[in-house]
Amino acid sequence: MENDKSYIDQIFSLTALRSDHWRHLLAISRKWCAGKIDLTTVQDTLQKLQPIEMLHAYPGKKLMSKLSQELHEERKEAFTALVARLSFSILARYYKEDPSEWALHNDGDVAGGVSSDVPHRPYFEVLIVAPDQSHSVERNVKTLLAQRQRDDDFIYEPLVVHSFQDAFCAIAVNNNICAVAIFDGFDFASHLPVPQLNRVMTELHIEEDEDHVALQLATVIADYRPELDIYLMSDQRPQDITNDPRSTCVRRVLYAVEEPTELHYAILEGVRSRYETPFFDNLKRYAHRPISTFHALPIARGKSVFKSDWIRDMGEFYGKNLFLAESSATTGGLDSLLEPTGNIKVAQQKAARAFGAEHCFFVTNGTSTSNKMVLMAIAKPGDIIIVDRNCHKSHHYGAVLGGLYPYYVEAYPMKEYSMYGAVPLHAIKKALLTLKAEGKLARVRAVDLTNCTFDGHVYNTRRVMEECLAIKPDLVFLWDEAWFGFAHFSPFLRPRTAMGAAAAIEKWLLAPESVAAYDKQQAELGKDPTDETLLETRLIPDPRQVRLRVYQTNSTHKSMSAIRQGSMVLVKDVDYFQIEPQLHEAIFTHSTTSPNQQLIASMDVARRQMELEGYGLVSNAIQIALDIRNQINTHPLVSKYFKVLGADQMIPAQYRTSGFEDFLKPGTNWSDAAIAIRDDEFFLDPTRITLVCGTAGFDGTQFKNLLADEFSIQVNKTSRNSVLLQSNINNTRSDVAQLMHVLLELTTRIENELSRSGAEGRKRFEGQVVSLMTDVPDLPNFSHFHDEYRQDVGGKVSVEGDIRTAFFKSWDPANDEYVGLFSEECDKRLKDGPPMVSAKLVIPYPPGFPILVPGQVISHEIINFMRKLDVKEVHGYDSSRGLQLLKLKQSR
């Protein structure tokens, strides 16, 4: 995505480029030692590294100066040895553990870093933004470092920059930064070229605030990386600064010349606040207490396991702490997940803060349960919810359990790849306007959408909510972000999360210009605008009427370091005080009374990790994904049979008004992506990689099984002709290498087989490709609910349906009948009736979306699609009996 120049604003790639540059410098220096290249080549290579290292505390000025000195004096062996040491230390992160890595010489002259005579302490860096007055800055840094003590919980190193733009680049590319101290008097512009940063600042109208540049920088940093603690070191009176509303993003304001000790302890306390895991810490203490258990959990304390002659291997496999930390008690230092009052409550409060929510609830039954909880809490029987027909089955079952009437809206189809995209805003607005025209807008309770979709389609969440609120100001929004929880820790993706968009809308609602913008649009629309006009207009809600009510569910285990089934419900709801009793009842209804302690602890720890290193982990996941995309699509042999779909192939041009085409398009930079994220209706999550395998003659399921069985590579979702690869915080560049090795082996195998099989073999192969890539079934839209499961209002037939009645009617066998999918009766009833009405949710895997729900009329398109499916797993369909149908009244 980036070019080869070593600009310090290459945010997406600079972390990887840094390691590559050091390895390249080592290779060059070895050639220099061997006399194969001249000094100038080495000097040029080192010069490219200098700007990058300005943004990191290690190696730091002293070690970099030592490196330059060795080169200047042409001490080849010493230069190469130092390059090797620094390169490996950066790559393996040795400098965080080993104080010798900071030594200037072999005699142990240490330039900074960790101390060898204390136990391991987590390492981080503090960004200091100060004017370029070397003597004054050095004195301040030395004073700060002098405050460090052997018994500090953490160890930090300072990193000093002298401009607004350098500070932004540092927090963007340096994953070690956990705190920022801002002094008065620094410059605004970098002395180095930052073309992409300049472009984005121009797009966002960011210009220097000469009177308050320190607060301006603090605001920008807090917006980009809200997890960082920011300290303002001012020569002004601190109380004068705190009167500025922007100072709310600053953790503490200190009088610069008086408070080095306070700054040191404030930095440690800020990191400690994020490091603390109330439930996990308490569970560790509990596990090591002498406890006798007289409750119904024999496995607690592990005696039944470790004293057994027959299951001792279970204890050896899992370790004793797992059993010591088990209990069904909610007293004696533990807490109740259903009614938390202690450490679980604090852990949930910390998670709410970390994810930008007002409230957070831990769920140990997965996001399937989280979705049902929210739907039960926000809507009552008979309410209408506008919902993506292709959403996870938990939403459909939530409607069944709650007696809700789903009004299904369709995502745009991607027939060629047998998958759907996301639901266009036009379809959602049209549903609301149709219901308004039918006099049913008061019954519409919520809009329920999946963000991002399984295949990576990310909504413009802010725009969706604002335009829907312009039609109905009290709508509730449920965003199922099961696969997208990590996105909060990416400044690029965060604005498109539910909580990120809700924060932006909340800020806009409070701004005085919001009312003026609404009034202006109303004057332009006139007294009674047509639906067509409203559909084509970027609607602005009335900030005086809006009730901002947003719920986000995320599968913490799907993108963070939590144990399977760990999920969170995040809430930002101005009417929460009214809905709180209902939400608690929903939690009581759906939650187990025996939640897994380890699951709760893992969510507590996952939050800690994401607050302290999530930015770097997510940045690496994005870079890994971009590497995969680039290597597959540019490899001369692999790209002949496999390809990764770009944004231009996954999202139609009409939803990409910025003109963004793909991450790999030549000349595309992070600034292009930033603008697309701001403006486009849909954006493609870069960590979702749709790999087309049909062009290699494999269907998705076949290729998925081949990767798992023969090469130990696991993937999850497939389509007729593709598999979905996902990069996450667990992946490394070694994983990329292994994937490419496997794809190269497979393509080589294909080439060899085709060369041996001759013309007839090539013809068979091409026929298989045509079958997978061209002869694909049309994707069926939702047909309609049968009249028995719809309501008539004012003579108009409703689109929403009574899914609950249909679902439970099928439980009585007297109401059911079966028709074979390929039978003559099926064809006859499609042609002449009576209509066939589904009794079940029918979900083929792949593609994984429900093609039928209870009460839905089965159409020609649905039957044709099912007949062309060549998958073995179809939930809700028994091939031995046929389609399960509901008998109609007239046929009984």
Please explain how this structure is put together:
This protein is an alpha/beta fold and 892 residues long. 45% of the residues lie in helices and 12% in strands. The protein contains 33 helices and 25 strands. The strands form 8 sheets. Strands 6-15-14-13-11-7-8 form a 7-stranded mixed β-sheet, with helices on both faces. Strands 2-1-3-4-5 form a 5-stranded parallel β-sheet, with helices on both faces. A 3-stranded antiparallel β-sheet has the order 16-18-19. The N and C termini lie far apart (64 Å).
Task: Classify the helix fraction into a percent range.
Answer: 40-55%
Stretches with pLDDT under 50, minimum 5 residues: none
The total count of helices amounts to: 33
User: How is the largest sheet built, in terms of strand order?
Assistant: 6-15-14-13-11-7-8
Structural class, from helix and strand content? alpha/beta
Distance between the termini: 64 Å
Number-wise, the strands total 25
Largest sheet, strands/sense/barrel: 7 strands, mixed
